[in-house]
């Protein structure tokens, strides 16, 4: 489980997050919904320990990692996979090499174990036959699937997604959402994804937290979002997609 407790984050004098608290439980899909620039991606960085809050605490599996130094964060981060909005693939490496790079560099596993893990995740992502292709030769949806498969390579408990369907066509978006659901249903993983697309939230999220002006104005099971009378939530329920 990942938890932010009373976290405040400032950039200069600007308050990005104002005493926010949020939990993401294991084997649960949680969405963080909000417009661009509100601090959604910042929350993912806090969960990974990439940035430190000005105040408050960050917990991973009950351990307070707020003041951890970089070497202490390595085993914590291996519990989580991250899928960036731009995928962050190595353009000069093949798909297979993108999968194997971190295993070879970080864990120094035997080649047969590397091959086993790579084959397993390529199959999960539906990318058999594309192992020797470069990322630029793939569609946007396929590149996103490469990024998801690569995020699984360390066998994490939780996957963090930054705008997983942004810029994708409806068919590709549906495939990505199905993959996220499969992570929970078949792999037993938890997931948290930040998004501005409310239909994605209703499609797969067990719970949703709505971030607005630095605070969470809703954090509950997704079905109850319709019951909110907050003006901002009523407006996004009507518009379906937030301005980015």
């Amino acid at each position: 489980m990942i938890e932010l407790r009373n976290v405040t984050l400032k950039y200069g004098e600007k308050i990005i997050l104002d005493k926010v608290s949020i939990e993401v439980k294991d084997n649960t899909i949680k969405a963080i919904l909000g417009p661009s620039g509100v601090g959604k991606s910042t929350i993912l960085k806090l969960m990974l320990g990439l940035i430190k809050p000005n105040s408050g605490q960050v917990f991973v599996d009950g351990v307070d990692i707020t003041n951890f130094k970089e070497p202490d964060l390595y085993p914590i981060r291996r519990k989580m996979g991250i899928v960036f909005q731009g995928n962050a693939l190595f353009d000069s490496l093949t798909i297979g090499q993108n999968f194997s790079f971190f295993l070879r560099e970080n864990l120094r596993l035997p080649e047969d174990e590397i091959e086993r893990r790579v084959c397993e995740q390529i199959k999960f992502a539906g990318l058999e036959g594309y192992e020797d292709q470069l990322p630029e030769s793939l569609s946007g949806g396929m590149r996103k699937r490469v990024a998801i498969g690569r995020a699984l390579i360390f066998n994490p408990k939780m996957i963090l997604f930054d705008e997983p369907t942004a810029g994708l066509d409806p068919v590709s978006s549906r495939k990505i959402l199905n993959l996220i659901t499969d992570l929970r249903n078949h792999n037993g993983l938890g997931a948290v994804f930040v998004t501005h697309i409310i239909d994605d939230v209703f499609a797969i999220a067990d719970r949703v937290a709505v971030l607005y002006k630095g605070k969470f104005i809703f954090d509950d099971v997704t079905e109850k979002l319709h019951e909110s009378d907050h003006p901002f939530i009523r407006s996004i329920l009507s518009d379906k997609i937030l301005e980015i």
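Residues 90-155 form one domain. The first helix runs from residue 40 to 48.
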